[in-house]
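Below is one such record:
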Amino acid sequence: MDPIAAGRRMAIAIGARRHALFRRLATAGKGDPNDVAVAGMCATWATGGGALPQWLGLPPAMFRKMLSHHFGPAGREISGGRIGPEPDRYNEIADLRDLLMKHRAQRYPSERWLIEMIATGCMGLDHLWSDLG
């Protein structure tokens, strides 16, 4: 078997799963202006992409609340895995989180969740847009 062709087939399959999950989540969006952005990050993360750790960098209860807020029952499709950022990066996460919290619009519940995900995603090793998905 040609490993390059096998890799391409795998990438296509992952991309198809990611796109299908994104469509299901985005369609289930409940009207928050951040529904589409969160759907994209969740779909990428759930299919193994990006650099976000377990629960997208949120505490488990906050993660479940975020999914319910944005996607209702469709959010139950997302769960799980991955390890967190290196422990020596936690101070950086906290500093960035504090900065973003200080300058948020304070209009939508999703702002806090996105701040947590962005601050954690900044600890990835790639471009932020790639690490967040």
About this structure: Residues 3-132 form one domain.
